[in-house]
Amino acid sequence: MAGRLAVTDDRRTQLADNLARVEERISDACAKAGRARDEVTLIVVTKTYPASDVRLLAELGVRHVAENRDQDAAPKAAECADLPLTWHFVGQLQTNKVRSVAGYAGIVQSVDRAKLVTALSREAVRTGRELGCLIQVALDAEAEAGGNAGNTARVAARADRGGVAPDGVPALGEAIAAAQGLRLDGVMTVAPLSGPYAGRQLAAFERLMEISSDLRANHPAANMVSAGMSADLEDAVAAGATHVRVGTAVLGVRPRLG
Ligand SMILES: *Cc1c(COP(=O)(O)O)cnc(C)c1O
């Protein structure tokens, strides 16, 4: 028993230290950008880590957590149902998982197609819960001059990452705004690995801000901009992100891809 407690204490100390370091990075980035610290919300991405870590994080003051796979997230969220947490779903979402995800997620950040909007709306109405939605933008799918070969490569490269091309954002925004039970909260992106923004995180996040401004022209309340992860949260804060999604820098390097 003493051994178990010691292990928990070690983990708590480790998480507290990591959180403090991430907090300092966010504060520094806000200061540098002339932004108030409270303009940026930390979301801790707990994928692949156990419910016990989520519990420690909640005790350490974390209020937003994110997961990307329903089969891992659903039991974890159930175990942590007593905690004052908002769960964000940030992974590719198949419509057959919508019922489960809508059971614990407050915000789905990976809305990228009309079919998903229909399924999420149906579930929100059925359960009487409002669901926040972010449009996931695939910046590697930006329309540009180029041949078919390049296009095929782009589609392949983002096949497992999801997202709608920037020119599809307005229509998807209208669909979400018109859907019963859904609330259009804003946009999300993952820095692209291919295409014109590959390796240019700051430029990618600045492009996301433009897309956000265009969306807000018609939907002023859709002011969430979710961008930036462990490696590039400073760029996201500099560009104007309101939410950063940090996994590794808080919890450690994941034991497997997730
Ligand atoms: C895993 C993940 C993150 C966190 O990535 P880290 O590099 O571990 O900080 C953020 N966003 C999404 C969509 C993710 O899948």
Describe this entry's structure for a reader.
This is Pyridoxal phosphate homeostasis protein. The chain is an alpha/beta fold and 258 residues long. The protein has an eight-stranded parallel sheet. It has one domain (2-250): Alanine racemase (TIM Barrel), CATH 3.20.20. It has helices spanning 2-33, 51-59, 70-79, 98-104, 114-127, 148-157, 169-178, 201-218, 233-239, 248-251, and strands spanning 41-45, 64-67, 86-89, 105-111, 131-137, 182-189, 224-226, 243-246. It is built from ten helices and eight strands. α1 packs parallel to α9 (233-239) and α4 packs across α5 (114-127).
CATH superfamily (homologous) name: Alanine racemase
Strand order of the largest sheet: 7-6-5-4-3-2-1-8
How many separate domains make up the residues? 1
* CATH architectural grouping: Alpha-Beta Barrel
By DSSP, the count of extended strands is 8
Strand content: 15-25%
Coiled coil: 12-39
Keywords: Coiled coil, Pyridoxal phosphate
Protein name: Pyridoxal phosphate homeostasis protein
Domain Alanine racemase N-terminal: 19-255
